[in-house]
Every structure is written in C-alpha cells, then in structure tokens.
Design brief:
The protein is of the alpha+beta class. Helices cover about 35% and strands about 45% of the residues.
Length: about 140
C-alpha cells in the first residue's frame, strides 16, 4: 500500500511539473508574440509588453560591437504606419525554471532577421531581458 501511495504522489508531482513547464512555454510564447505583433503592426505599446524596462539589445554593426537599451531603440524606430510586409516565426522556445530563450525569424522581402531572446520570469511575468540578432540578406537564385 505504501508503495502505491508513493507512486501516486510521484506521478502527481511529475504531472504538475509538466503542466508548469507547458504553462510557462505558452507564457513565453505570448511574451515574444507581443514583440513580433508590435513590430509587424508598428505598435510600440504592444511591443513594449515583451521587454523589461532595462532590457538590452546587443549586436555587431560594421564590425563594431554595440549595446543599447532595447525599449529606447524601438521607441525611436517604430513609427505609426501601415503593417510591415514581413513573415514571423518562432523557431524554438526553451524553458528552464525561471529562465527561457527563444529563436525568432522575421522575414522581409530582401533579408531576414534572426533574433535570439533571453527571458526571465520576474514577479510571475516573463520578460525579455536581452536580445541579440543577425541580419541575413536573401540570396538570389539566378
């Protein structure tokens, strides 16, 4: 009887852990979707929901390493206007405890951005704390 109770308790714990992982996966997906939807629709207020106020964006431009506050950067570049001509995709999401990362692809007609987002669960809410990216030009098949 004791053995049966232990097995039931262990199964319950494992299933609760699995549910928490799935739930966190969906919450991370929702967070990065704010970023993708906000950028596609030129909507800074939606994009802003994805980021911690101190989130950084790190990249290399013309061979030089740059680091900027992500929200300050997006506030300058996102202007109200028509929807962007782009396709977005979440390539993967990894969740481990209160940390997560996601790879996103944003395809424009002539290039694709590959974004890597690092997220933390802060006060029960997932926020992007760091973004690095690469801009990959499309090659023509002539």
């Amino acid at each position: 009887m004791k053995k049966r109770i232990i097995i039931i308790v262990l199964c319950t714990i494992c299933s609760m852990n699995s549910f928490a992982q799935e739930s966190d996966y969906k919450l991370v997906e929702k967070t990065v979707s704010y970023y993708l939807e906000g950028g596609t629709n030129n909507d800074f207020e939606t994009l802003k929901k994805a980021f911690h106020e101190d989130a950084t964006m790190k990249f290399v431009s013309k061979g030089i390493y740059k680091e900027v506050n992500a929200l300050s950067f997006f506030k300058r570049v996102i202007k109200k206007g028509p929807k962007q001509n782009r396709k977005t995709q979440i390539s993967y999401i990894n969740v481990s405890g209160n940390t997560a990362n996601a790879k996103l692809e944003i395809e424009y007609p002539s290039f694709t951005f590959i974004d890597y987002m690092n997220l933390l669960k802060i006060d029960g809410e997932w926020k992007v704390v760091n973004k690095i990216f690469n801009r990959k030009p499309k090659t023509s098949n002539k």
